Amino acid sequence: AAHMGDLPETLLEDAPLANMTVDGFTFTPITTVTDLVQEGALMAHCVASYAGRILSGICVVCRVEGAWRGTLEATWAGSYWRTAQLRGRLNSVAPPEAVLAAEAYLERHTQ
Length: 111
What we know:
- The protein is of the alpha+beta class.
- 25% of the residues lie in helices and 26% in strands.
- The chain has 3 helices and 5 strands.
- It has a 5-stranded antiparallel β-sheet with strand order 1-2-3-4-5, sandwiched between helices.
- A hairpin with a 4-residue loop joins strand 4 and strand 5 (81-87).
- It is globular, with a radius of gyration of 13 Å.
- The model has no long low-confidence stretch (mean pLDDT 93).
């Protein structure tokens, strides 16, 4: 896990992605170090190490809840948000319906 001592608790003042339910999956941007560490512990993966990336605006990490529980890492690709990673507990692969829901969720935020 990354050393969190140098980071502010709030990673995102104003999340560029909204809290939204799409196709039965609820996407919730993670905006604090505490929530990020909790997500990593709950899901047994290394998302907590992404704190610096979130802080610098490289990516947004979202909790994904529905028929399947996962974590989405979205990155800004210049004119649209793209799915960088979508993983379940222990980095398990996401089911197709979650992949499609994530794509639809991110499409709604494209400028």
